[in-house]
Design a protein that fits this description.
18 strands; seven-stranded antiparallel β-sheet; mainly beta
Length: about 240
């Protein structure tokens, strides 16, 4: 396992020179004099583990197009994130998971992902499962066969987000996807923690570089935004641990 300091990511899609490209960007102005009150004191580590689909999860969305909707999920225990405690979260469009109504404390599990239908007309699905006993429970959220808006439907991503009651850790686990063999920078990606104020990005904790061994960076300027060079491979695991 490799350990680092702090991390995050973001994305947008475009078509350039006949090749599908996923670029990142945040079209928001950042005001340097605004007071920032968030706690982004996290440690990041990358490892690998076999991806296993959830057994008999609670279905959140499936069987229809749900890309523009948001879904409230009960956490099942008190979870601390960026210095505040929460009992529920909201899975929002674009791979954003938020812990409060104004998206103040949020993270991107993989920015840009959305509901897609495959060539047979089957839609992406979302589900969750609460596992374990009191004091050591884990909420597991599963996104199956999701994709990207401007990318062919046969390219998909499977991933899970795990929230740990013990230590309030966040873990992102990647399963099978149609992107990981693509060359560097053909499909770049963003993952990480983000703090907003009044809808404006104030500070982010980003992952960057090689998705197998990402570096991390805390960023307070839009001009400094960075990203992973590829979609993470199946079995890749990212862990964010608070230091408070």
């Amino acid at each position: 396992m490799t350990s680092y300091g702090t991390g995050l990511k973001t994305k947008i899609f475009g078509f350039s020179n006949g090749k599908w490209m996923i670029c990142f960007g945040i079209a928001l102005a950042i005001f340097s004099k605004r007071v920032v009150a968030q706690d982004l004191n996290y440690t990041f580590s990358a490892s690998s583990s076999a991806y296993t689909s959830l057994e008999s999860p609670v279905n959140i969305a499936s069987g229809a197009f749900w890309a523009n909707k948001q879904f409230v999920v009960p956490i099942g225990f008190s979870f601390s994130f960026m210095g505040a405690s929460f009992n529920e979260l909201t899975v929002k469009p674009d791979g954003l998971i938020s812990f409060d109504a104004e998206n103040v404390r949020s993270f991107y599990c993989l920015k840009g992902i959305t509901c897609k239908s495959d060539l047979s007309g089957n839609f992406s699905s979302m589900s969750y499962l609460l596992c374990g006993n009191s004091g050591s429970r884990i909420l597991k959220i599963q996104l199956s066969n999701v994709g990207f808006e401007a990318v062919p439907s046969d390219n998909h991503v499977n991933l899970q987000v795990w929230l740990y009651e013990q230590g309030s850790k966040i873990e992102i686990r990647f399963g099978a996807n149609g992107f990981y063999n693509a060359r560097d920078s053909l499909y770049s990606s963003i993952v990480g923690l983000v703090y907003f104020q009044e809808g404006v990005v104030q500070k982010v904790f980003m992952l960057k570089g090689n998705p197998s061994e990402p570096a991390t960076e805390v960023i307070e300027s839009i001009g400094q935004m960075c990203f992973l060079t590829r979609i993470p491979s199946p079995g890749q695991v990212y862990l964010f641990t608070p230091n408070y």
